[in-house]
């Protein structure tokens, strides 16, 4: 069985091509020696009259995988259609253990050939880095034959699914013959659930389920959701909610068959005995240890980026020591639990290298990039020596040096990526913390006003008899 999806690409064509053809994801494990690591090695190897497909599951249809970006760009320039949607990114995923890499790639190539091969340039790559094998398709948005654009709509997507199912049958793979409506999920949501990470739609389901269990009437259900900060839209065709901090409403029916308005009312009716309102428990959180840098006990006061990250972790409930209250973590911060590994790695980098502000971070990143440039030059010279070398022993030594350089470059690339992530995430963190603070202040004002009204009305009731 294979699931399919396709979406448009509007930012950068080279980014999606580089992702789809990433050697670390498409590498045939039978050719895992240092000779074939890195795209530059692959290109050098292909010059020896050997095709890239023998080492990596990457195929170009009407284009060369190594120059696909340039070819697709030339097509756009030829027909003066360089704006708008640059490409379409397709996806075809197989059940773990169902297909071999060869079978998955063959199905992907046939699918692309049938759907787009007559008019469009396409890259087909099979990623092997997950338990489930999956194909990626990068489809040029402009046809090289007539210059017309590709339009993605319900009809073309339906044809993609039908073709995928037919090819799966040809290769004796299981196909769902009568899929039930209303059971589909966004790919990002499915992927996050497979990795046991929360999604914001999943958090809405969790909140709705708990509120239903504690409600005896539909009115109580609405009131409880609003008390948690949700904006609830009723009196419309489809009931919708907007979580705190989100811009758009979500129709509850899109969360599944159990979340339509009628289904929710039926679930509430099944609550035979009333349940006392209770503080909803926090979702289970993992404990993370931040190693590197000075001990927190020895540090008098954290400042700058370090203080921001630790305060954010505290507000998320990840650093629970001496918490001031047991209030439920804000929706925006609960959502970021799925990025916990990345946030932890960024925090560790800030502590290890004692980076406190943006200027220090930029300096650190520039030093990394300069070091990487030197290593790239050294590795390039070693490749040149290998091509001229005729001594097997010396060639082996060169290869070992290249493997060591590649490993070091991999670590440096990760740190550069973490730096870029900190630059973007830190601003997002500030905005979220500010929004949470403003909502908490507003909530305290409302609670104080309610308390004052209660005090003023209390004595008056004593003389009403």
What is the strand and helix layout of this fold?
Blueprint: E1 2-9, H1 13-20, H2 23-26, H3 39-46, E2 58-61, H4 68-78, E3 87-94, H5 101-116, E4 122-127, E5 134-140, H6 154-170, H7 187-194, H8 200-213, H9 218-227, E6 231-233, E7 240-242, E8 250-251, H10 261-269, H11 304-316, H12 331-335, H13 340-352, H14 358-388, H15 392-462
Antiparallel strand pairs: 1-3, 2-4, 3-5, 4-5, 6-7, 7-8
Helix pairs in contact: 5-6, 11-13, 11-15, 13-15, 14-15
Describe the fold and architecture:
The protein is α+β, with helices and mostly antiparallel strands. Helices cover about 50% and strands about 10% of the residues. It is built from 15 helices and eight strands. Strands 1-3-5-4-2 form a five-stranded antiparallel sheet, sandwiched between helices. It has a three-stranded antiparallel sheet with strand order 6-7-8, covered by helices on one side. Strand 4 and strand 5 form a beta hairpin. Helix 5 (about 100-115) packs across helix 6 (about 155-170) and helix 13 crosses helix 15 (about 390-460). Residues about 30-55, about 290-295, about 320-325 and about 460-465 have low confidence and may be disordered.
């Amino acid at each position: 069985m294979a699931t399919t999806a396709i979406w448009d690409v509007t930012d950068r064509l080279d980014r999606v091509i580089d992702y789809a053809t990433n050697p670390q994801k498409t590498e045939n494990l039978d050719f895992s020696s240092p000779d074939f690591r890195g795209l530059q090695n692959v290109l050098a190897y292909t010059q020896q009259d050997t095709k890239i497909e023998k080492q990596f599951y990457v195929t170009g249809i009407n284009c060369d995988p190594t120059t696909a970006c340039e070819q697709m760009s030339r097509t756009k320039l030829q027909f003066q259609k360089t704006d708008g949607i640059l490409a379409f990114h397709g996806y075809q995923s197989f059940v773990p253990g169902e297909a071999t890499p060869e079978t998955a790639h063959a199905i992907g190539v046939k699918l692309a050939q049938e759907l787009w091969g007559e008019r469009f340039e396409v890259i087909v790559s099979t990623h092997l880095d997950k338990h489930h094998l999956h194909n990626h398709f990068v489809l040029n948005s402009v046809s090289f034959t007539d210059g017309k654009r590709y339009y993605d709509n319900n009809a073309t997507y339906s044809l993609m699914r039908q073709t995928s199912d037919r090819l799966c049958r040809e290769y004796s793979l299981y196909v769902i013959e009568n899929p039930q409506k209303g059971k589909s999920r966004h790919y990002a949501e499915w992927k996050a659930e497979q990795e046991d990470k929360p999604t914001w739609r999943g958090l809405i389901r969790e909140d709705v389920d708990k509120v239903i269990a504690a409600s005896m009437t539909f009115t109580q259900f609405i009131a409880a959701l609003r008390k948690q900060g949700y904006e609830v839209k009723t009196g419309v065709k489809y009931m919708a909610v907007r979580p705190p901090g989100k811009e758009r409403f979500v129709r509850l029916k899109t969360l599944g068959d159990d979340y339509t308005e009628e289904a929710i009312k039926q679930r509430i009716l099944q609550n035979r005995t009333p349940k006392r309102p209770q503080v909803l428990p926090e979702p289970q959180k993992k404990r993370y240890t931040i190693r590197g840098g000075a001990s927190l006990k020895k540090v008098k006061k954290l400042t700058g980026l370090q203080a921001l990250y630790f305060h954010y972790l505290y507000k998320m409930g990840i650093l629970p020591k001496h918490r001031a209250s047991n209030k439920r973590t804000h929706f925006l911060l609960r959502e970021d639990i799925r990025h916990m590994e990345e946030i932890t790695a960024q925090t560790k980098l800030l502590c290890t290298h004692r980076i406190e502000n943006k200027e220090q971070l930029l300096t650190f990143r520039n030093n990394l990039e300069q070091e990487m440039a030197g290593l790239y030059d050294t590795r390039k010279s070693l490749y040149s020596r290998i091509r001229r070398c005729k001594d097997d022993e010396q060639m082996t030594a060169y290869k070992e040096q290249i493997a060591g350089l590649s490993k070091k470059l991999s670590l440096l690339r990760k740190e550069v990526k973490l730096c870029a992530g900190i630059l973007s995430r830190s601003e997002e963190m500030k905005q979220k913390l500010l929004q949470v603070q403003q909502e908490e202040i507003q909530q305290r004002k409302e609670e104080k006003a309610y308390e004052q009204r209660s005090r003023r009305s209390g004595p008056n009731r004593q003389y009403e008899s």
